[in-house]
Design brief:
The chain has 123 residues and is mainly α. It has one domain. Helices cover 87% and strands 0% of the residues. It has helices spanning 2-32, 38-56, 61-75, 78-90, 94-122. Helix 2 runs antiparallel to helix 3. This is Fluoride-specific ion channel FluC.
Length: 123
Amino acid sequence: MTTLVVAVLVLAGGAVGAVTRYVLDGYVKSVAGKSLPWGTFSVNMLGTAVLGGFHGAASGTYVEALMGTGLAGALTTFSTFELDTVHLFQDGKYGRAAVNVLGTLLLGFGVFIAFHAFLRELT
């Protein structure tokens, strides 16, 4: 029974995460423009914060299934990050591609660690 409950929680979190990614990505692109893939960057940072925070809080199997694997897993998108970077390279925007890669990876680790540490201290 526990496996079924976890699977349903992942499904529910994934549904919310996927819709949130679609809406937030579109909104950020409309506001920030398309000089860099700000929409993808935004959803990845938000998902990283969610995952880091709930992991830091040691919230347990059910919450991590819903919020970590489900919500954060569907919210974030590594494949779109890669595709955006490839498009920047193909368009000859090498500096922007490098900023996208380094910014996403370095800031992503920083966001994860910060939210992990913060919520670990609260619990």
